Amino acid sequence: MSINKDEFKEFVKDLIFPLFTGLSILEEDLPIPKNNRDKLVTTYKDKGDIILRLMPEKAAKFVVSIQRSQKFNKSEIELIRRLLKHASEYGLYQVDYKKELVDFIHNKSVAETLSTTADKSILEIINIFMSLSQETYEGHHISYAVAISEEELGNSEIYFKDIIKEDFGKTLTNSIDSLLCLDKNCMLLSHMQIESIEQNSEFKQCYYPLRFEKLANRSLTKKLLVIVLTRDGEILIFKKGNLIFSRRRGIWTYYLHDILIKQMGMIRNQEVKKSIYSTILDASFSKGGACIAVVSNETYLQDLYDKKNFIGNNEDSPLKSKCCYCLTLNSEKALKFNQLSRILRLEFSSMDGAVLLKKNGDIIAIGAIINIKDGEISEGGRTAAARKLAEKGIAVKVSNDGYIRAFKKKDNGSKESFRIA
To answer: Could you tell me if 383 and 407 are in contact, meaning their C-beta atoms sit under 8 angstroms apart?
Structure first.
């Protein structure tokens, strides 16, 4: 192997960083693990922080260390180990066609993370969907959804790969409320239309984009995964009711929802945290954009936003404030943000401007146009507003292309706390 430490750092950035949020490379040189030199990933504790030491191959003479503000869980460490293992196996460090091989390693590692019994079929579906995303049918991009059983074997001799080659096969699902069911070998089992959702206590704790609620719900079934291709060429994978992976703009993201929610540390009410997080997921996949901020003190807003525009029904309140206030009422009592229906939260956040909240979920304003000085706008108005609002709290901005960035208070300014591609 002819790769040095600096070159390996660049491979780590290409191979591992896109799937996870908040990673950084530790510049300090850490010791090579003496007792675990055959392991590509080892943990290192430093003042309570968990750092991962990575090696390009067993018994390498150097390590590259990565860290972040949250601890790594077992599933993340295992995925990173898979990525490095396949990179070494398939000669990633020696080839010139790095982009194609990185894509293959990502796809294979994602499939193996999802299932140990149906990983080959999952990988095949991913590859088929990536190819389909480049095609059109009667002038429209193709959308599709399949459910793969990790255990079931059917009696069919009809192979999904053969179906999708034909024009008729490209119209069999709509990626919203219908899908094809396949066994663990990718053989056809049935077609399913999802007419209703099983709203049980388990599903209420799941995280998924509202647009794909029916498909996420279907994945609650034991040993069943749902894989979706959207007309935008994005791939979403659901398991146990949750969005686990997505591939957007050619980049895979691994969703560890609880870790991301913990980043909203100043909000103590868990239901408020969850409602904000669910809404930014909904906004991201509806491509409408959003900006949601939680501020610690209303008085901070007086220089950023005219108080008369706060949500309410006063004589001098503008029509938008009165309208939004009316829509939040329940038996003449204004609901908190987390008490609103999920679709209304999404529609409020889709307005031009920001949704401003108190830490307890009380709504301060909807569609708030924040006063930003010209010199403070370098990354776009929505990002500038989120950064400014985060100086006294937290703020999350969703771009029209679905990109999510969150900011939180730091000293006299703000800093990015996480991003989701």
So the answer is: no
